[in-house]
Design brief:
It comes from Pseudoalteromonas shioyasakiensis. This is YggN family protein. This protein has 260 residues and is of the alpha+beta class. Helices cover 67% and strands 15% of the residues. It contains six helices and ten strands, in the order αββββββααβββαααβ. The protein has a seven-stranded antiparallel β-sheet with strand order 6-5-4-3-2-8-7. A hairpin with a 2-residue loop joins β3 and β4. α1 packs antiparallel against α2. The longest helix is centred in the C-terminal third of the chain and has 54 residues. The radius of gyration is 22 Å and the shape is elongated. The termini are far apart.
């Protein structure tokens, strides 16, 4: 039971890191993305309800509602600025979001696997629900990044409430299976049980310390990036406003909204 508590401690460290991130964001500005974004090496797509509404190819070719827009040289420059502004911020935000949660999920799995030969199936299933909730907001593949419409200043609510609650529910709901698995593991192994318990405790300490160091470093990186994010997103909003004036069709899909 003591080891189970340590696993929750490791997860709690993850959640506190995201809370730090959210606090830093809120001090800077309140930014909302009103549409989803899919970003690849060559294409940026602004999506709404699963449909691509705006597409930018190679940072300079614009399509609105599937129709190519013939751009003047000045308009092309603004489209390029808008496209590059998106690329400067969104992929990194997705990276930071997915890396942090995956680290927390891996910590739980390592803790459980360190105590028994296998991870209880019920825990595995519950953690898959957590991953799906994450992918509804942030998703990263081998060749793309996705971010859903959301308020970037309220990322802490998503991580410290929704994701945190789902992880705690997954672990608590799986507690019975974990304990049964542990009991079977202890019965099937030779050697002194007390020595094995101490060994597991030491492994848990190492895992917790490594997670702590990793997340502390991440929090420091986020602190350094916080003002840069805000500055880039404000600049992106200004560029988008210029583009909307030049290409009125873009006004129907206002992506970046600065609330304060």
């Amino acid at each position: 039971m003591a080891f189970f508590s340590r696993s929750l401690l490791a997860a709690a460290i993850t959640f506190s890191s995201f809370s730090t991130y959210a606090t830093l964001e809120k001090k800077q500005c309140d930014v909302e993305l009103s549409h989803g974004l899919i970003i690849t090496d060559d294409v940026i797509r602004i999506v709404d309800k699963g449909q691509t509404r705006v597409q930018i190819n190679n940072d300079n070719q614009l399509f609105i509602r599937g129709y190519w827009v013939d751009l003047s040289p000045d308009e092309s420059k603004v489209v390029e600025q808008f496209s590059r502004g998106i690329r400067q911020t969104v992929p990194e935000l997705v990276d930071l979001a997915t890396d942090g949660v995956n680290l927390g999920l891996s910590a739980i799995e390592q803790v459980v696997e360190g105590m028994s030969d296998k991870e209880p199936e019920v825990l595995k299933t519950q953690l898959q629900y957590v991953e799906r909730a994450l992918m509804d907001k942030f998703k990263r593949g081998d060749d793309f990044f996705f971010i859903a419409p959301q308020s970037l200043s309220k990322i802490d609510d998503f991580f410290t409430k929704e994701i945190s609650q789902k992880i705690h529910s997954a672990v608590h709901g799986s507690l019975g299976a974990i304990l049964v698995s542990l009991g079977d593991a202890f019965k099937s192994r030779e050697g002194n049980i007390e020595d094995r318990i101490n060994d597991m405790g030491q492994r848990m300490d190492i895992i917790s310390k490594e997670i702590d160091k990793s997340l502390q470093k991440k929090a420091e990186q986020l602190e350094m990036k916080a003002s840069e994010y805000c500055e880039c997103l404000n600049s992106l909003d200004v560029t988008e406003s210029r583009l909307q004036q030049m290409v009125p069709g873009m006004a129907d899909f206002d992506l970046v909204q600065i609330k304060s």
